[in-house]
Design goal:
273 residues, alpha/beta, Rossmann fold, Alpha-Beta Plaits, 2 domains, four-stranded antiparallel sheet, 9 helices, 39% helix, binds magnesium ion
């Protein structure tokens, strides 16, 4: 019988930290640090959250990384923090603390993304509440605000526009919470991104005893949970029936509460326990 994730407590976390030199805290943004809003533009980090994250980023013995499906530029705008690693577009672009990964997108996929972006904007532009977001290396179709009677139309149009590219394996289609996403068919996801960040941080701090932690709320975060399932602490935000995460926290609010508690701990005491 498989058991679901257990609720993460600070005492469990402290136990997991024992024996490690460094904590690599990696987190998704939407639905994890901030609640999902009807429009992505409304999901803004409060000043107190930004200050909390900066405090964590400044803590010695800790590295903070934000990994999101949003573009790198968006993440920078939403979280204008120092001393952090940022990964945008599900890890297709990673920068910060000496890291710089920008995946090379085949020109044929780049052109295809531009074409589908244009076509989808034309076709879905008239559907109320539908938002087509072109993020350079991915195109997202948000349908959270679309009235139920139009949902079929959204799916039908996305399928019709994307089909030729999917058949030729020029693009692939992924799903998230009320979002469809078209991306290049590159074997790269949040799982590969967290592994690359983990390697980089271990090298940077000169220790193999870096504990990787990943917190996320959506289907794309499952790749990161899988990547860290043996050696990391994996936390799914919200309840999910199917998840590879070992732990959960019920909401972004609880996640922030947990981070606050973490920021109050004395780092040396944490390692000694
Ligand atoms: Mg999310």
């Amino acid at each position: 019988m498989t058991t679901g994730p257990t609720r993460l407590s600070l005492s469990t976390f402290r136990r997991r930290l024992a024996g490690y030199d460094h904590l690599l805290l990696m987190s998704d943004y939407d639905g994890t640090l901030v609640a999902i809003r009807k429009h992505p533009a409304q999901a803004v980090a409060s000043r107190s959250l930004r200050e909390l994250l900066q405090r964590l980023a400044n803590t010695q013995g800790m590295t903070l990384a934000i990994i999101s499906g949003r573009s790198l530029r968006e993440i920078k705008r939403l979280l204008p923090l120092r001393r952090i690693i940022r990964a945008g577009n599900h890890g297709f672009e990673i920068t910060g603390l000496g890291m710089r990964i920008v995946l090379r997108i085949p020109p044929v996929a780049r052109n295809a993304l531009q074409e589908v972006g244009n076509l989808l904007r034309q076709r879905l532009g008239k559907i109320p509440g539908c938002l087509v977001e072109e993020k350079g290396v991915t195109v997202s179709i948000h349908y959270r605000r679309v009235p139920a009677q139009y949902l079929h139309q959204v799916r039908q149009n996305v399928r019709a526009v994307a089909e030729p590219y999917l058949c030729q394996k020029v693009l692939r289609l992924t799903r998230g919470k009320k979002v469809l996403e078209l991306r290049p068919p590159i074997e790269w996801d949040k799982g590969k991104a967290v592994e690359a960040i983990w390697r980089h941080v271990a090298q940077r701090v000169g220790s193999r005893r870096v504990l990787p932690v990943y917190c996320g709320d959506d289907v794309t975060d499952e790749d990161a949970f899988h990547a860290l399932r043996h050696q990391g602490v994996t936390v799914r935000i919200g309840r999910a029936r199917q998840t590879a995460a070992r732990y959960y926290l019920p909401s972004p609010k609880e996640m922030v509460r947990f981070l606050k508690a973490l920021s109050c701990l004395d780092w040396h005491a944490r390692r000694a326990s």
